[in-house]
Write a structure and sequence with these properties.
- The chain is built from four helices and three strands.
- It has 122 residues and is α+β, with helices and mostly antiparallel strands.
- It has a three-stranded antiparallel beta sheet.
- Helix 1 packs across helix 4.
- The protein is elongated and about 65 Å long.
- The protein starts with a helix and ends with a helix.
- The relative contact order is 0.12.
């Protein structure tokens, strides 16, 4: 197993959560989502984003509207539905619990590592 594969899998696991958070702030265009995800170092490409948006729409979690553009074709702007807002609230609760649990385990490992380093230097 290589580290890049593990990192990709970890990022994929939280991608839907991050996308829904971005959309929860208001109407958003897909390329703006890509820009924000990229600047947050969650690398994603259009070939990953659009199928995920379609799946979320088909699940009733988000909707979109077409808006005419001054500089080209109409743009599709995404918004969360009421069901999507509730789903995101539930995901947020799960994220907090999971994050706390993982941090507890990582901190204990860190603390034990520090304690063993201290005892080995004596």
């Amino acid at each position: 197993m290589n580290i890049e594969n593990a990192q990709v899998q970890m990022r994929k696991g939280i991608l839907e959560f991050c996308i829904m958070h971005i959309i929860s702030r208001g109407e958003v265009y897909a390329s703006d989502m890509l820009d924000e995800l990229t600047s947050a170092k969650i690398m994603v490409v259009e070939g990953t984003l659009y199928p995920l948006l379609t799946r979320l729409k088909n699940s009733g979690l988000l909707d979109y509207k077409w808006v005419e553009s001054q500089s080209g074709p109409p743009r599709k702007y995404y918004v969360l539905t009421d069901v999507g807002k509730q789903f995101l609230d539930d995901m947020q609760h799960t994220w907090v619990e999971l994050s706390d649990s993982v941090n507890t385990i990582v901190q204990k490992t860190h603390d034990l590592g520090s304690a063993s380093e201290d005892s080995s230097t004596k």
